[in-house]
Amino acid sequence: METPRLKRINELAKKEREKGLTPEEKLEQQELRAEYLAVFKNNFVNQLEHTYIVDEKGNKRKVRRKSEKKD
Q1: Count of the separate structural domains present in the chain
Q2: Block means of pLDDT (10 residues each) for the chain, length 71 residues?
């Protein structure tokens, strides 16, 4: 997510604490936060997809989702 959008999220949060937001600003804030969370989750999933666990014997295995485990 680019810096101007993050700045806008922070501006709206500050204004909300100080004065309150108009209905239009509240909607904008919700949309920006949803976009931020989507980007965050996507980046986190990508990071986990490239993560391996090394056991005490030195064996590497890829991290899998709980739903993928057969154990």
Answers
A1: 1
A2: 88 95 96 95 93 92 78 52
